[in-house]
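Sanity check

After download, print the first record. It should look like this:
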Amino acid sequence: MRKHAPIVLGVLIILLISYTSVQNPLTDRYLNSLKEETLTVTANAVKGTLWKEIESFAAEHDIQPVNARIDPVWKSIPGYNGFSVDMDASFKRMKKTGKFDESLIVYKQTSPEVSLEDLPPSPIYKGNPNKPMVTFLVNVAWGNEYLPEILETMKKHKVHTTFFLDGSWVKRNQDLAKIIYEEGHEIGNHAYSHPDMSRLSNARITEEIRKTNEIIESTLKEKPKWFAPPSGSYREDVVQIANQMEMYTILWSVDTVDWRKPDPNEMAARVVSKVHPGAMILMHPTSSTAKGLERMIVDIQSKGYTIGTVSQLMSEKRIIVKPEHKSDVSK
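Expected structure tokens:
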């Protein structure tokens, strides 16, 4: 027994040291720090991989914004927002699982460096050609008998657009002007007495626009932002004076020519065939438009276009074509 005493004593000492080590708070902290460091390294590895996947996806789906510009033919063309992945927001939505999931991607819009208001005064014939939206320009100086049907058709299809009102017409038809406005349509200025603006003196140009604004504001409590010269007739002074009155001069890129009383179906088919992204479609409250409007709306929308007001068309806000999966868009 004495022979094995040193061995037994050694084993007892080792067991004591081991027990003491396990119960030592310093040892516990050290082991915990190793554990935390391992978890951190693992988490960072997962984050790094996930972040790189999101970054790669973002690079493939980035659309740069388009600046507003002056076109030699179409004059002022508004800008259009870019569209990109919000990487931080997307990562936050995926970090719980640590796995890339395209359905959790969050998008954001990015503004162009040059906007419409940065351009020198110039007429506007159409919206940005990248924007899948069109607008109807309804010039009203006569045709009261057809307005109810036109308004009813637009209401049926939940379409809101811009009505350019002649000032003297508003003075005579304030209740009808209020109905148009209360239906949710935008109101523009169409001069006061339907003159040829290109032949007027500057003083008379100013008076025509000012008087119309005054009667619209007093009737609808709304100041027009858009001015449509009667018959599309203007000269540079008209554009400059409208600009000084904080208004843009609006023309068109597609004409119904409804005042010639065309067959409604033929007119609708011709207009739809000429529609393009950013189109501004001129019309009046005529029998042809009243009867052909529904077909125009349905066929234009079936081609993938949204129908909106002039303000909506001129806005840089991007029309989002929703992907098959659900995703967020930061506005």
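If your output differs, re-run the checksum step. Summary of this record's structure: Residues 25-60 form the longest helix (36 residues).
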